[in-house]
Amino acid sequence: MTSCDDHYLSIAIPTPLRQMFDYLPPDNEANLQPGMRVQVPFGPRKLIGIVEAIKSESDYPKEKLRQVTAVPDRVALIPEDIMQLCRWASSYYHYSLGETLLQALPKVLRQGKPATREKIALWSLISPLDESIAVSLKRAPKQLKALQWLSEYPEGLSEPELREVGFSKAILSQLQKKQRVLVREIELVDRLFTEYANPVRQTPLTLNSEQAFALDGILESPSFHPILLDGVTGSGKTEVYLQAIEATLKAGKQALVLVPEIGLTPQTVKRFRSRFSVPVACLHSGLSDGERLQGWLAASRATAGVLIATRSGIFTPLPKLGLIIVDEEHDNSYKQQDTLRYNARDLAIYRAKIADCPVVLGSATPSLETLVNARKGRYSHLEIKSRAGHARPPTLELLDIRQQTLHEGFAQSLITKMKSTLDKGEQVMVFLNRRGYAPSLICHDCGEVIDCPHCDVHLTLHRMPPHMHCHHCDFQTPIPWSCPKCQSKRLQPVGQGTERCELVLEQMFPNTPLMRVDRDSTRRKNALSEILNTVHSGEPCILLGTQMLAKGHHFPDVTLVAIVNADSGLFSSDFRGLEKTGQLILQVAGRAGREKKPGHVIIQTHNPQHPALQMLASQQYSRFADSLLSERKQLQLPPEGYLALFRTESSIAATGENLLKNLRNLLLSHQQDHSVRVLGPIPAPMEKRQGRYRYQLFLQSHQRVSLHRMLDLAVKQLDSLKLPKGLRWTLDVDPQEMT
Ligand code: ADP
Ligand code: ZN
Ligand code: ZN
Predict the structure, then answer these.
(1) How confident is the model over 64-68, as a mean pLDDT?
(2) Is 393's C-beta closer than 6 angstroms to any atom of ligand 1?
(3) 270: enclosing H helix or E strand
C-alpha cells in the first residue's frame, strides 16, 4: 500500500459490541495485514486490537476517524485460518468477533507485550549416570529419578518441562549443589521441527489387529475426514494416536492433541516427549503466562511438531497442521462455560476442515452427539473392542446395599474385598464424587440447614482447614458454633465427602498408605504428580478421589475399583445427567486391571434394577446410548434437535424474568413456520447464585438454520435495549449444563 489516503483499517476490539471499528493507518506503516496487532485509542483508553480487514472506504468521514498509535509486530499473529475459525465461532455462538479474536491470543499478547522468544534455562547432566551415582543417591530417590529422566534428554530440559513430570526447582537445586546437573541459559533459536533427521526417538509398540485397522483408517487419506475412535478403556488408543502423529511428522506436518483439563497429566506428556525427538509444546493452566507464550510461539512458528493442549489450544496457529486428535471427546471440559461458550471438540471439526486434515475423536464412552454423527455416516466409526496387550476387561458388580448395615457408607462385603486385594499386594481405588467433609450441616433440634447467603445451595463442611464453603460462588465462613435459627449447639454433618471418607478409611486400614485426590488436596503445584508417582511405584495403597481420578490415568496395579454411591447421578433433573453418569461410571471402572492382573469393580447402589445401571454393569455402552437416544428423539432434545439457552442474572428477580418474557413474545410474533419452540422463561435450577436471580429461556428446533435465524433476531433485539442496572444476559448455543 502506498499512501494512507486510500485505505482504512477495520479493527476488532475486545468489547461486547458486535461491530468492528474504523481507524486510519499510522503515518509510516507500509506493511499492515489482516491478523496483525495494533494499539488504538478507544475512548480515553489505549487498547490492543486486531486488524480485521483493510478497506478502501469507510462509512465515516475521514476527519472523524482516529489513527492507530502503534504496531507491535511485523507479522500477523492471527493467520488467515485462525481468523476464519474465529469468524465462524463468533457467528455460531453469537459472540462479539473482537472478543473472539482477542481471546484466541495468549494473555501476554492481549496485553500488548512483545511476541518474542525468551532465553530459557536448560538443565542437563554433568556426567553420564552410572552405578556409583545411583548408589550415592540411594537415600534421595527423587533426585535419582530426576537424573534418570534427564539422562534421556542430552539436549537438556526446561523448568516447566521438568515440573510437568514432577521434578521441582528444589530438587534441581539440590542436584546442582552436588554437581550432578548444570543449568545453562540459551537463546531460543527457532529450529523448525522438520529439520530433525528422525522425529521419533523410541520404537513404537507393535499394534494388534484392531489398532492397526484404526491407524489405517486415520492415515487412509491426508485430507479432511472426521473419525470416531471408539475404543474401550485400556484398548491402546494413545498408541494409535502416537503412531498417527509419527506418520504426520514424517510427512512434514504438525499434530494438535486436545486433552481434557485434568487429563493433561505428567504421564501423558511424558509418553509424548519420550516418543518424539521433535519438540512437543504444551498449553495448559499449570503454566505461567510467560511459559504459555513460549509454547504458543513454538507451535505457531512450527518449531514444535506436536502441541498438547487443553480446550483453548484449538485457537493456536499451527502453520503445518496435518492432524487433530481430541482425546476423551465426551469430556465436559471441552465446553467453555462463560464468555465465548464454545465447544473445542466441535471447533476441532471445523478447524480440520479448514486445514483439510483428518480429525480423530477418541473415547471409550463417546458423546451422543458424536455417536449420531458416526451413525449417520458423517464420521467414520472405528472400534477397538478389546484391551491392548495382556489386559482383560474388568468385571463389574452391582452391590445391592438396600437394608444392609453400612459402615460409614461401606458395605461389609466391599470392605472384605478391599482387605483381600490389599493383602495380595495390589491397589484399591475408591471413587466418591464429592469433595469436602460433608455436603451439609444440619441442626438436629430444628432442622435448619446452613445455606450460602448468596446462592441457592447448602454450604459444604470442610475440615482441613475447618470452614464452610460454597462450591458455586466460593463464599467461605467459619463453622458456626450454634444454629443461627434456634441457637442449639447440636449441629450435625450430613452425608459424606472425600475428607470424611478419608478419615473413615484411615481407621479401617490404619497400615495402608492412603492418598486423596480432589481439587483441595491437589491445589499445591506438583501435589498431583507426587501422588501419582507414589501410585506408580506399585506399593499397595488406597487411592481415594473424585472424578479427577476418572480420566485417562493408567494405574497398572489398581485391581479393585469401588464406586461408593452410584445413585446420586441416576435421577438428575438435567437431561444430560444420566449420560454423564454412565460415562463417569465406565471411565472410573476402566481404571481397574489395565495390565496383567484382572480388575474388578464394585458399584454400591440402592437401585440395582435400574435399567441404565444394568446396561452399564454389563458394559454395553452402545445399548445404553441407544436407550438414551430414543428418549432424546421423543423429546427432540440434542443430538436429535438443536438447543440454545438465554440466561439472565439480575439483582431484582423480576427484571430478568420480564426481559425474557418480552423476548419470547417478540420471537413468537415473528415466527411463521413454528419450526422453533420457545420454552420459558423459567427460574434456573439454581435460582440464585452470587446474590443474583437467574432465569432461562430455551429455544429448541430440529432445524439448525431456523434456530440460528431466530437467535440472530433475538440478539439484535437484546443489543438494541438499554438494560436496567444489575441485569445481564448471556446466550449459550448447544448448552452442556442447564444449571
Ligand atoms: P487407552 O488410551 O485406550 O485407555 P492406553 O493407550 O493407555 O489405552 O493403553 C493401555 C496400555 O496398553 C498401556 O500400558 C499401553 O502401553 C499398552 N498397549 C497399547 N497398545 C499396545 C500394544 N499394541 N501391545 C502391547 N501393549 C499395548
Ligand atoms: Zn436449630
Ligand atoms: Zn454461594
Answers:
(1) 94
(2) no
(3) helix 266-275
Burial letters for 483-516: b for 16+ Cβ neighbours within 10 Å, e otherwise? beeeeeeebebebbbbbbbbebbeebbeebebbb
Q: pLDDT digits over 510-546, tens only?
A: 999 999 999 999 887 778 878 888 888 899 999 999 9
Length of the chain: 739
End-to-end Cα separation, the chain, in angstroms = 52
> Whole-angstrom Cα distance, residue 455 to residue 473?
7
94: left (phi over 0), alpha (psi -120 to 50) or beta: left
CA distances from 543 to 423, 432, 505, 697 (A): 15, 11, 10, 42
For residues 341 and 733, give the distance between their C-alpha atoms in angstroms, rounded to a whole number: 7
| Bridge partner residues of 326 (DSSP) | 258, 361
Q: What is the pLDDT of residue 422?
A: 97
Residue located nearest, by CA, to atom 24 of ligand 1: 389
| Ligand 3 centroid distance, CA of 449 (Å) | 14
Q: What is the 3-state secondary structure (H, E, C) of 124-149?
A: EECCCCCHHHHHHCCCCHHHHHHHHH
The angle, 0 to 180 degrees and rounded to 10, between the axes of the packed helices 237-250 and 266-275 is 40
Ligand nearest the Cα of residue 486 is 2
Mutate-to-test residue for ligand 1 from 327, 363, 554, highest number of ligand atoms within 8 A of CB: 554
Mean pLDDT check: name the lowest of 74-78, 186-190, 230-234.
186-190
Using CA atoms, how far apart are residues 267 and 528, in angstroms rounded to an integer? 11
Helix (H) or strand (E) segment spanning residue 120: strand 120-125
User: Which three three-digit cell numbers place residue 363?
Assistant: 473415547
* Residue 687 identity: E
Q: Report pLDDT digits (tens) over 351-372.
A: 999 999 999 999 999 999 999 9
Is the CB–ligand 1 distance for residue 239 below 6 Å?
yes
Beta bridge partners of 229: 362, 382
Shortest-distance Cα residue to atom 23 of ligand 1: 207
- From 589, 457, 437, 428, select the one nearest 518 (Cα to Cα): 437
CA of 471 to the centre of ligand 2 (A): 23
> How is residue 254 written as a grid cell?
504438525
- Contact between 86 and 97 under an 8 Å Cβ cutoff? The reply is yes
pLDDT of residue 263: 62
